Amino acid sequence: MSVDYNTIKGQLEACGQQHLLKCYDDLESSSQSTFLDQLSRIPWDSIPSLVEQYLNAQSCSLPRGDVAPAEVTIADPETAAELASRGEEIIRAGRVAAFTVAGGQGTRLGWTGPKGTYPATPVSGKPLFRVFAEQIEAASRRWDTPIRWYIMTSEANDAATRSFFADNNWFGLPRTQIMLFPQGMMPCLDASDGKVLMESPGCVAMSPDGHGGSLGALRRSGAIEQMEMLGIDTISYFQIDNPIAPVIDPVFIGLHADPERSSGEMSSKMVPKIRPDEKVGVFCTVGGHTEVIEYSDLPSSLQSETDAEGRLRYDAGNIAVHLLSVPFAKRLSEQNELPWHRAVKKVPCCDPTTGQELIPEEPNGIKLEQFIFDALPLAGRSATLEVARSREFAPIKNATGTDSPESCRQAQCDLYGQWLEDNGVVVERDADGHVLASIEISPLTAMHSGDLAGQELPARLDQGDRLVL
Ligand code: UTP
User: Are strands 438-440 and 466-468 parallel, antiparallel or unpaired?
Assistant: First the structure.
């Protein structure tokens, strides 16, 4: 579709961003039309209010309303069995789809490709995408239904992600079971005056619109429409960087679908925080609704408050695993009510008049992102399920230290070592309780320790041993 220069010019003038067209006449005609096309996809009418709200906003936003710890479900074995049976019925009926958000830039890890291509398992180094593909295949077999897998990419990694899937023959899954789509982008603002930055002459500096942008992306891509057509009403949302997250969990699905505990719109998993100042968002109740308060926004007096048994009162750490109903995701995607969060970063850009490249030495630009957990207060009643960190949460975020490939590798060895011990294998551990052998168990072999019963297993595993099942 050809885009009219004068229409765009009018829109830019109306919101005080006409500087973007200063170099327009110097561009080649093909670059002019690519530029106009990019400009036409930016919602200019919302820019003035974003500038007004976020140019000088403090990054810390205090919760509005009375804050209390979130109500958390700790499922004892009997409750878990009940919930699982309800959840399994829903899965078998083909009502659940898996949804991975994989549009992030992975700057902290420093991996150049899409994060899903990162080798994550302790022995064979399977990439994250393969780990989840195997989980999806295992779940499809177990519940006898092809689980659909939706994956959100970004403009920056969409092509590389598609090639990776194609090169790996879609990890053996039917091609029709997987849908990839890119997330939206937002223009970066000059932190000093709110002017939209240009990356180069004829190109606005853009950044991904955050994992909260997944709601809009689900709708624009046609994923929501496809789900509706297929009778899928539940989206199992998880991040690309946590290889031990169970992507389809019947207990969680059963809880989400329990009308006594949840409105069935959006549910979450939590792990208890390790220490008061652990840098994770915390599920709280604010003004009667479940919300995640970011660690930097939770007053330190509340962070360290304990109950009669000495347990932190605000300990419900967010691990970014959610269930969303399709109607809820659709409604939110149409209303686009999630707030924006600003991050001031170094954004390479150019002078709009001369086109000269500007390499910032200090953070110069505002990037705007939406967060998925901001959808929680827009749901009716939201359920939060406590799960064990050792079983479900070992993210790869940083290159070293906490939440790094090494901590994730160790967490996998510890988890699979535990499964083997549950089945009578002697597993050597160090003084801190960490497993000394390298172990990996494919979801196609076992989805939990009970699946190993009756399988041929070694008698013991010691330091230096390597086992792939
Ligand atoms: P993170 O907040 O860990 O960000 O994303 P990141 O981009 O992966 O890593 P850093 O901060 O640059 O080091 C959490 C999850 O949300 C996805 C990521 O792919 C990851 O699964 N995400 C994040 C998106 O899909 N889009 C975004 O715009 C941001």
Answer: parallel
Candidate of 397, 402, 408 to mutate for ligand 1, largest count of ligand atoms within 8 Å of Cβ = 397
Which whole-number Å values give the CA distances from 325 to 219, 258, 429, in the listed order? 13, 13, 42
**Which residue type sits at 121?**
T
Q: Residue 277 has which token pair?
A: 């100042």
Inter-CA distances, 299 with 60, 62, 177, 277, 318, Å: 11, 9, 45, 11, 17
CATH class as words, domain 64-394:
alpha beta
Mean pLDDT, residues 342-370 taken together: 93
Distance 210 CA to ligand 1 centre (A): 7
Query: Is the C-beta atom of 110 inside 6 A of ligand 1?
Result: no
When pLDDT is cut at 50, 70 and 90, the band that residue 63 belongs to is low
Domain spans in the chain, listed from the N-terminal domain onward: 64-394, 398-469
Cα first-last separation, the chain: 53
Instruction: Identify which of 431, 416, 411 has the alpha carbon closest to the alpha carbon of residue 467.
Output: 416
Q: Which atom of ligand 1 is nearest to the CA of 152?
A: 25
Question: β-pairing, 466-468 with 96-101?
Answer: unpaired
pLDDT by residue (tens digit) across 140-177? 999 999 999 999 999 999 999 999 999 999 999 999 99
Protein residue closest via CA to atom 18 of ligand 1: 104
Helix (H) or strand (E) holding 115: none
Is the CB–ligand 1 distance for residue 106 below 6 Å? yes
SS3 breakdown of the chain: % helix, strand, coil, rounded to 5? 35, 20, 45
Ligand 1: does its nearest atom lie under 6 Å from the Cβ of 108? yes
Q: Measured from the CB, is residue 211 less than 6 Å from ligand 1?
A: yes
Residue 179 near residue 151 (C-beta atoms within 8 A): yes
Q: Is 153 close to ligand 1, i.e. is its CB under 6 Å away?
A: no
Q: CB neighbours of 365 closer than 8 A, spacing ≥ 6?
A: 188, 189, 190, 191, 197, 205, 344, 345, 346, 347, 349
User: What is the per-residue pLDDT across 371-393, written as a single tens digit (0 to 9) for each?
Assistant: 999 999 999 999 999 999 999 99
| Sequential DSSP letters for 298-325 | S-HHHHT-B-TTS-BSS-EEEEEEEEEE
